[in-house]
Backbone:
């Protein structure tokens, strides 16, 4: 990987074999990863994957049962949050409702004992950085701010702390889609502008893909895959990651000893050509993206062909999505450009071997 | 029934529900009017009747108020307000930690503590105070135990000011504790965590987050206790003997032994007025809505 070779890629945070147990339940299971200085790193996983527990350990609100969390080489497992040079933007934002916007931003500076003049200057800078006109917002009550404005105030307050790493506990999840997309871009811009290390936690892979330099995908307390978003998209490590990435087709296939496999749909068994050899009897998942599937014209050649019945079509704007049935209970998703629209009810579905991947279940 | 015109329907609905609201409020309104406002007005009016009379239809006079300012009733008023203030301060110090534990720490145990404290209210205040008398009198529970165990001679611990305050603190504890616990419960945990995360020490978190955000509870608890203990009579009488005469005791004796209802009414009016001023000053000083960050202008 090119990124790991560059000098700026020194790890700032090292997580080594960190485990957290609550009674007999293991929330985080021997997790290892490093966050590099100045990168936008995202931990992403479905609910219950242990991402919140992991985050709470990283900021110091929970202590690991075992393992080490190192910040610039120093173990910080037992350091309470108020003594760590890191801070977090909460999911609820946790703004101080009794203080004005300006006083919220100044809070960490006040704690640090800065004079009111210095605090005010810094708060004005930060409000400007976050596109909140200080003349209008400095004295504004938190209750008068909209959702997006509160996000910005929370970020300004966290930046005022001047943390080495800024953690985020999916603060954008409560916003509507349009505002969320806008703030994702702003967040990325601010991260680039301030060159701070951002460590973001979310359940939305889409959000992770938009903002992050690197993504770690969590499942049941462990990390499934770490990498750049394009790497993970191009070669997901297993079916879980592939499914988490979005709408994909995962066909259960049983190896036939060479580059062929069988897909048992219950009613009939389909023989498929595979992109790689699969030992006899071994079960894997064949990943095919919806856009790699196409309806074959009579006589057209394809790496694999399967007769299907078209059940539904949905408009996605420039593209159309089809739900097709191979056998009762076994459906595939197909996405084609609007120009290739078909009105048939029966069709032959085809794909090229190079557009499919064999993944562990 | 659906109306044919869709536009006026909501307003018809709104006026309908406000009519129901007015009807629903009627019984309580009537009770307040005849059981609270009317007697209060009677007392105020009676204060302007000539001394030692029992009729309401006479020419009003300020004679009773002149008497009050010529005599030493201000001492009783100061005692009442002073003891009430002291009770509030003691209860704030005692109850804040307990209320914090009730709201944030005890979890399952909180309801047990709540019931245990609320149960004490089932027994009449006077009976509970006589319990303290048995505890503190000469050769009582405390004195007797000390005499037996350590051969110490303890005189009666009753009839002094600290024991009066102890009685008031004991009696009015629930009225401070529960509003405080509710106030503290309203402080979001994440806001406290955020302050801690932004570098604040535990003391700074308390001073800058917990205290200001729980102030509504502090204020309501303090006002309840202040108003109740300012009008208290039993503690000073039962535990304090004749050491201290509170304004409530003065008022009682005007209505009973002295048979001077107009003077008693004037004293009541004056004291209600004073307490009201204190309460409104406190409420104006601390704007509850603003404290909660809910005010929009």
Residues:
């Amino acid at each position: 990987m090119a990124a790991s070779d560059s000098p700026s890629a020194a790890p700032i945070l090292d997580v080594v074999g960190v485990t957290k147990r609550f009674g007999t339940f293991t929330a985080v299971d021997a997790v290892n990863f490093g966050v590099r200085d100045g990168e936008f790193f995202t931990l992403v996983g479905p609910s219950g994957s242990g991402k919140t527990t992991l985050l709470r350990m990283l900021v110091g609100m929970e202590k690991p049962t075992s393992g080490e969390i190192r910040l610039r080489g120093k173990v910080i497992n037992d350091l309470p949050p108020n003594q760590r040079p890191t801070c977090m933007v909460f999911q609820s934002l946790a703004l101080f409702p009794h203080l004005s916007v300006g006083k919220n931003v100044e809070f960490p500076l006040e704690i640090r004992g800065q004079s009111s003049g210095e605090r005010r200057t810094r708060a004005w800078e930060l409000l400007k950085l976050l596109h909140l006109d200080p003349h209008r917002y400095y004295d504004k009550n938190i209750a008068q701010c909209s959702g997006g404005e509160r996000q910005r105030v929370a970020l300004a307050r966290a930046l005022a702390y001047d943390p080495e790493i800024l953690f985020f506990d999916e603060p954008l999840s409560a916003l509507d889609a349009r505002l969320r997309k806008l703030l994702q871009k702003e967040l990325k811009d601010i991260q680039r502008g301030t060159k701070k290390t951002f460590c973001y936690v979310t359940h939305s892979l889409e959000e992770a893909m938009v903002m992050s330099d690197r993504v770690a995908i969590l499942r049941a307390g462990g990390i499934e895959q770490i990498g750049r978003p394009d790497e993970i998209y191009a070669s997901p490590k297993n079916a879980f990651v592939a499914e988490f990435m979005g709408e994909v087709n995962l066909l259960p296939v049983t190896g036939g000893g060479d580059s062929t496999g069988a897909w048992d749909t219950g009613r009939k068994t389909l023989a498929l050509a595979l992109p790689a050899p699969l030992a006899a009897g071994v079960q894997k998942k064949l990943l095919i993206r919806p856009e790699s599937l196409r309806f074959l014209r009579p006589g057209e050649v394809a790496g694999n062909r399967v007769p299907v019945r078209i059940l539904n079509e949905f408009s996605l704007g420039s593209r159309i999505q089809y739900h097709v049935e191979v056998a009762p209970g076994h459906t595939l998703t197909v996405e084609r450009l609007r120009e290739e629209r078909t009105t048939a009810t029966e069709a032959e579905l085809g794909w090229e071997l190079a557009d499919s991947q064999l993944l562990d279940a | 029934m659906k109306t044919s015109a869709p536009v006026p329907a909501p307003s018809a609905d709104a006026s309908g529900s406000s009519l129901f609201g007015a009807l629903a409020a009627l019984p309580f309104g009537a009770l307040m009017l005849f059981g609270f406002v009317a007697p209060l007005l009677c007392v105020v009016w009676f204060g302007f009747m000539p001394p030692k009379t029992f009729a309401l239809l006479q020419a009003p006079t300020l004679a009773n108020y002149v008497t009050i300012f010529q005599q030493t009733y201000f001492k009783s008023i100061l005692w009442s307000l002073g003891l009430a203030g002291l009770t509030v301060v003691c209860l704030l110090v005692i109850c804040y930690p307990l209320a914090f534990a009730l709201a944030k720490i005890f979890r399952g145990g909180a309801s047990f503590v709540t019931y245990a404290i609320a149960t004490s209210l089932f027994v009449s205040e006077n009976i509970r105070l006589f319990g303290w008398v048995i505890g503190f009198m000469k050769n009582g529970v405390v004195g007797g135990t000390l005499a037996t165990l350590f051969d110490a001679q303890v005189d009666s611990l009753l009839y002094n000011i600290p024991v009066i305050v102890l009685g008031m603190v004991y009696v009015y504890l629930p009225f401070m504790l529960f509003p405080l616990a509710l106030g503290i419960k309203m402080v979001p945990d994440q806001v406290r965590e955020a302050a801690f995360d932004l570098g604040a020490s535990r003391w700074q978190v308390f001073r800058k987050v917990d205290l200001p955000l729980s102030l509504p509870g502090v204020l309501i608890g303090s006002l309840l206790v202040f108003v109740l203990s300012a009008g208290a009579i039993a503690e000073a009488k039962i535990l304090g003997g004749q050491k201290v005469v509170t304004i409530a005791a003065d008022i009682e004796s005007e209505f009973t032994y002295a048979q001077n209802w107009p003077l008693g009414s004037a004293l009541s009016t004056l004291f209600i007025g004073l307490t009201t001023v204190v309460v409104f000053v406190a409420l104006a000083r601390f704007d509850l809505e603003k404290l909660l960050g809910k005010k929009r202008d």
Remarks:
- Chain B has a mean pLDDT of 86.
